[in-house]
Amino acid sequence: MDDNVYFCCEYARSSIGSCKACPKAISKNAVKIGFTPDFDHCGTIWFHFSCFFKKCFFRKQLKDDTETSSVFVGFQDLKDTDQQRIRKAHEKLVVALTTGKPEVKKGKRTADDDESEWKPHTKKPKTATHSEKELTVGKHTYQIQDFLYINISRWRVIVLVGIREYYRTAAGGKLRPGKKGISLTVDQYRTLINERLSISKAIEQIKEDKEGKDAIKKKKTKQTKKDKQVAAKTDFDISENRRVIVKSEFVSGSQQVVVDIREYSTAEQSGEIPLPTDKGVTLTEEQWNKLLSLHLTVIRDLADNFGYSEDFADELSS
Ligand SMILES: [Zn+2]
C-alpha cells in the first residue's frame, strides 16, 4: 500500500470513537493521534496518544520528519502542555528508531501491555474453496464475487433485485442471504444500470486524481485546487432516498475506488441532513464490473420468470 500518510491530532469530541490498536474507547477531550492516507477521500484512523507512539505501523515515517509542529495537522490547536507531550514522545521515537533501541521501557508487565504493532491488513480475501463453489444458492441467484450475490425475489407484489452478502449456515453448508446488502426495486435497479457510463467516468476520474496526487507527492510540491479538472459527477440518485456514491475508500489495506449503493435517512428521521443507513452495499471496481456483466442474465430472468418481458424487450433483442 501507499505508505506515505499524513498525521493529525486533536481532542476527541466524544467518547464514541475507539482506538485502532487496543481497541478501547478514546475518552472525550483526550488527545488522540491518527493518520489518514488521503485527505480528500478518506477518514482518519485514530489511536490513543500512547498507542500511536507504541503501536501504529506508520510511526516509523516520523523518523525523517522531525519538526513536530508541522508533521501533525492540528498541533497548533492543542494546549501547550499537550504540544509538549507530543514533542517529547516524537523525540523519543526518533531516537529509538535511529539507534534501534526499543521504544518502550520494559517495566512491570500488565494485562494491557500488549505490544503487538497495529498494521493495516494486506491479506487478500479468501478465495472460495472447491466445496464453496459447488454450493447451491437457489434459483434466480447470481454470484458477483465470493459470498456476494445478486438475487431476484418477489416480496408480496413487489419484485426485488437484491445485491447482498450471503452466509453459510453452520449445519448443512447452505448459503443464505445475510443482512448486509440492499434490495432494489426493478425501477431502482434499472436506474442504477442506466447510470453505468457516468459511474464508470466517475471511477476513472477518481483513479486519475489519485495518480496525479501520488506524482505530486513525489515531487514534493503542493497541488492547488486550480489544477483540478472539472469534476465529473460522483453521486447519483436512484430513488428519493437511495443513492449511489463513487468514492475512494481505505479498503483492506489499500486505497480503492468503490461504488456505494445505499439508502439514506429521510428528513423526518434525521432533520435536514440525510444520513447513510446500514441498508447498502459497497462494491469494489471489480465487483461493480461483474455486476454489469450479469445485467443481461438478470433481465432475461426478470423477463422470463417475473413478467418483465415487455419492459426489457429492447435490451434483450439488441
Ligand atoms: Zn489504544
From TrEMBL:
Record-level GO cellular component terms: nucleus
Domain PARP-type, residue spans: 7-94
Annotated PANTHER family: RNA POLYMERASE II TRANSCRIPTIONAL COACTIVATOR
UniProt region (Disordered), positions on chain: 104-132
Taxonomy, superkingdom: Eukaryota
GO molecular function, one term: transcription coactivator activity
Family of the protein in this entry: Belongs to the transcriptional coactivator PC4 family.
Taxonomic source organism: Mytilus coruscus
Protein name (record): PARP-type domain-containing protein
Keywords, in A-Z order: DNA-binding, Metal-binding, Nucleus, Transcription, Transcription regulation, Zinc, Zinc-finger
SUPFAM superfamilies (UniProt xref): Glucocorticoid receptor-like (DNA-binding domain) (SSF57716), ssDNA-binding transcriptional regulator domain (SSF54447)
Cell compartment(s), UniProt: Nucleus
Pfam families recorded: PC4, zf-PARP
Record-linked InterPro entries: PC4_C, ssDNA-bd_transcriptional_reg, Sub1/Tcp4-like, Znf_PARP, Znf_PARP_sf
Parts forming coiled coils: none
Gene Ontology process terms (BP): positive regulation of transcription initiation by RNA polymerase II
